[in-house]
Amino acid sequence: MISKLLLFKTLRSPKGFSLIEVLVAIGILSIAILGLAVGAITITRANKTSQSHTVATNVAQDILEQLKAQPFAAVTAGNDTVTFQGVNFTRGWALNPNTATFKQINVTIQWTDYVPHTLTVSSAMSPNT
Fold this sequence. Notes:
It is a single chain. Helices cover 47% and strands 32% of the residues. By secondary structure, the protein is α+β, with helices and mostly antiparallel strands. The protein has a single domain (17-125), classed as Pantoate--beta-alanine Ligase, Chain: A,domain 2. It has a four-stranded antiparallel sheet, covered by helices on one side. The longest helix is centred in the middle third of the chain and has 51 residues, at 19-69. The radius of gyration is 32 Å and the shape is rod-shaped.
């Protein structure tokens, strides 16, 4: 009789956790870890998009510098594609001749990482620059 009473007290001892308490704790921990994983993915995508914007700006600046290095009369519209880390950046440049001594250059960069993006950079040139 004493051994049955001792066994019953051992099973009902408040010294440990019940199975339900452990399952609830695991559930709460799983939700927290899932939230951290989603946050990490979002941050990674934002970093990649920021990197692509930086590359697009550099690609636009590069063609602007090339065009400005040419003689004023030789500058014409055009387009090409630049690839950086597996992302294709399509750039096109158009000229807006406002006067005989002034040209506005508009460079448009298009690329797709997670969604399509477009970036336009404008500059001006004259025969004296």
